[in-house]
Amino acid sequence: MNGWMGKITKIDLGSLEQETVAIDDEMRRRYLGGRGLGVKLYTDLCSAKTDPFAPDNALIFMTGPLTGTVMTSGRYAVVSRSPLTGTICDSSSGGSFGAVLKSAGLDGLVIQGRADHPVYLYIHDGGIEVRDAAGLWGLNTQQTQKAIQEQTPAKTSVACIGPAGENRVAFAAIMNDKDRAAGRGGMGAVMGAKNLKAIAASGSQAVTIADPEGYKAMNARLERIIDKNPVTGKALQVLGTSVLVNIINAHGMFPTENFRRGMFNDAEGTSGEKIAESLLQRQSACYKCPIGCGRTTRTKNKHGEGPEYETVWAFGAQLGVSDLTAITEANYACNELGLDTITMGSTIGCAMELSETGAWKEKLDWGDASKLLAFVEDTAYRRGIGAELALGSKRLAEKYGRPELAMQVKGMEIPAYDPRGVQGMALSYATSNRGGCHMRAYMISPEILGHPVFLDRFSTVGKAEIVALFQDISALVDSTVLCRFLQIAMGISTFTEMLRTVTGLDFSDEELLKIGRRIYTLERVFNNRAGFSRGDDTLPPRFFNEELQTGSSRHRLVRLEEMLDDYYSVRGWDKEGVPLPRTLAELGL
Question: How far, in Å, are 55, 80, 117 from residue 15 at the CA level?
Fold first, then answer.
């Protein structure tokens, strides 16, 4: 078998029984791996009524047919039902864990049950050992990784949770390779509910390649494509993802003080340029990645990786904070404790506005950087104010009677692009299967960066077709599993060629797009069964009722209703957002 290792193992942490999951060639061809195959396995195993913290809930770690082969192929995907949103959810992470898991002999791991005490899994040569983790429980993620690596062979890679996951914080992350995160949706909390502290992997098994000579030529070509693109070949390499701070601020859509404004007066002081000037030690990269968008940084007190663009925003402009050191150290703390920085920062922003309106009696002030570390730490341990922040913004705002102050979709906090300045991004947020997310369809690429062509960011015309297309391509790339930055540098035909070279299967561009559409539709079917419908494909009222007052996006509002019916039609769904029988039949669902 080329590309795949040919083995997925299911383990029950309660009974410790293990079995091989039967995956035939047709299923591999229809879902590939990563997000796609993870979603298929999850929906076969669990119902839409499954509690995310119940022992029978499945937590699925998946690699893909390209993992460990071409450029940027160290990633893995985690699939389960989100405790933050209640939707089906996948979260992916870079680093090298995905490639190492595959070299240990597995394409994926399906975990059910709950251990009666803390454990971790050690995977090698396709076998799985269940090891005691009582001595690891309570350690932060970096301490955990170090301790496990001292107990296992050299070059063991570890994915683990910190105190946030142990305490079932709704947006707890899974961390690997020190500072890489499967961050969104609370997959770390699902892991904690199973008493599973970590998964460690080591191995030396090679992925077989269908066309070795073509593979060498393909990797050389990919490197040239990446290097020639101004985003992947220059901007991300020089300034990392925070290159976007000044760009998005200049477009008047850099969310400030809980999305009340679209420009931050001190954006420059928290930008990628400022990070390079004052904090940067060196560039860092994931497995087989020539881009190297990571930033290894140091403050006076600590060192680590980041902050990325979303984190700079979440602890900066979103809170009115311009202290780059405080932002960076809050980022380090999230990595160590295992928290999603987007939800963490946005929930603090929601709390600040609740405080300002008098709905919440805690005194929180915009721009106060002095409490950031305490907020992060208290959230991870669910103590004091942190017990409230651990709910996420949706539940927090509902608790205090002001649900409109939570900047979220389906319970997941919206990231750092104000949708009033990008109509396609607004539709992408609203229809995202996992909630408020920029990674389901990154419309910033055509609407701001001009790839593959520039689109009028204020127009709604044609956006339904493009958002659906981007969602399908993103589902495909998440199933291979590769870095999504490749979508900026290359088109669908290049992914087709990669799969053909590695697996030997003669995929067409149209077949790959249909795979993406199949995955997206299957996720939608699950969410419909869980109670989600058209009424959930929306945005907070602020974006429909409150115009931005400054910057180049001023006087703009989201015009979602101009796009939603067209989107459903493009998707083959009815007026309530339910896939039609003919659509399901066409996709073989």
Answer: 11, 20, 12
